[in-house]
């Protein structure tokens, strides 16, 4: 389990990517790969952007391709987190009835909304193959990542 030092150094890297002058999607792609590589129980790391008509559209991600490239608000963990505009931590996806499965290996998921001011512009979604791996430190860390990448997600409006 990464400690505060590791999370802090990952946040430094996220700050560097955000300010790097890379295109928004290249920078988000680096963030996904960094988080997936650095944290052993982050098995799928991706971003969704909010589109018109209360819909989420898949952006950059690291991990297996997913069929859930568009998700309506209210559907699955991602859609519920968008609807309520709050972080969802699901330590055991088998206990969730409103859940969209990306892979049978996934055991748990955390979805963190990304805001630009008060406006929801996207989400950071992490799937894990471990049961109940997410601690308060993960949530704090990922909510800070969400704050740092907000300008990259709001930059491009999906169709
Ligand atoms: N499991 C999510 C769908 C997105 S995938 O995890 C990439 C959900 O229930 O909304």
UniProtKB/TrEMBL annotation:
GO terms for cellular component: cytosol. Pfam families: GAF_2. It comes from the Bacteria. Residues 23-158 form the GAF domain. GO terms for molecular function: L-methionine-(R)-S-oxide reductase activity. Belongs to the free Met sulfoxide reductase family. This is GAF domain-containing protein. It comes from Candidatus Glassbacteria bacterium RIFCSPLOWO2_12_FULL_58_11.
């Amino acid at each position: 389990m990464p400690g505060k030092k590791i999370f802090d150094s990952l946040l430094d890297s996220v700050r560097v990517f955000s300010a790097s002058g890379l295109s928004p999607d290249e920078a988000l792609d680096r963030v996904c790969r960094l988080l997936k590589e650095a944290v052993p129980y982050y098995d799928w790391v991706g971003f969704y952007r909010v589109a018109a008509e209360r819909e989420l559209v898949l952006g950059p991600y690291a991990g297996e391709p997913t069929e859930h490239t568009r998700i309506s608000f209210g559907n699955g963990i991602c859609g519920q987190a968008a609807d309520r505009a709050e972080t969802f931590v699901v330590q055991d996806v088998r206990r969730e009835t409103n859940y969209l499965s990306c892979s049978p290996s996934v055991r748990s998921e955390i979805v963190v909304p990304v805001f630009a001011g008060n406006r929801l512009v996207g989400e950071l979604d992490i799937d894990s193959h471990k049961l109940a791996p997410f601690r308060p430190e993960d949530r704090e860390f990922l909510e800070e990542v969400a704050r740092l990448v907000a300008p990259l997600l709001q930059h491009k409006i999906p169709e």
